[in-house]
């Protein structure tokens, strides 16, 4: 990492973000934005691709992190899977745009298809795309609201 001599893995970055209690997306800055656009617009070609280690997911950070909210367009590649640790104090939610996948939230199994949405309040989450086609979705990670009904 120092002087561009090595590339950190996604796992390394995730551990760093956890240690400093920041969203991992804070580590992916959008350096090519113009001053006029910096606070309002992110062009498609300026998006940062985040590829978690060996999960088969490709995530594009759609906007800079604001208020701890991370906003992604995720592509779950065909025949890919991942298990994500519980994120205490975090709400994860998404909606499927194309395709389908299977998700386990706190051990509960669901099949989620185009047009369906899901959410997870700080529980362990794992997913599987058993299909021959990718699944495309919008995925949001945010701090849990203080309201217990959220």
From TrEMBL:
SUPFAM superfamilies: RmlC-like cupins. Gene3D superfamilies: Jelly Rolls. Residues 1-27 form the HTH cro/C1-type domain. This is Probable transcriptional regulator.
């Amino acid at each position: 990492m120092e002087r561009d001599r090595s590339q950190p893995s996604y796992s390394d970055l995730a551990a760093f973000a956890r240690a400093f209690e920041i969203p991992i997306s804070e580590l992916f800055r959008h350096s090519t934005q113009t001053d006029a656009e910096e606070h309002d617009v992110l062009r498609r070609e300026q998006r940062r691709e985040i590829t978690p280690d060996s999960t088969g997911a490709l995530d594009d950070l759609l906007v800079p992190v604001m208020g701890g909210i991370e906003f992604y367009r995720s592509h779950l590649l065909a025949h890919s899977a991942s298990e994500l640790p519980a994120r205490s104090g975090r709400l994860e939610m998404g909606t499927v745009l194309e395709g389908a996948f299977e998700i386990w939230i706190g051990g509960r199994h669901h099949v989620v298809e185009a047009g369906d949405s899901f959410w997870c309040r700080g529980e362990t989450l794992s997913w599987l795309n058993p299909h021959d086609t990718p699944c495309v979705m919008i995925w949001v990670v945010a701090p849990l609201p203080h309201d217990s009904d959220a």
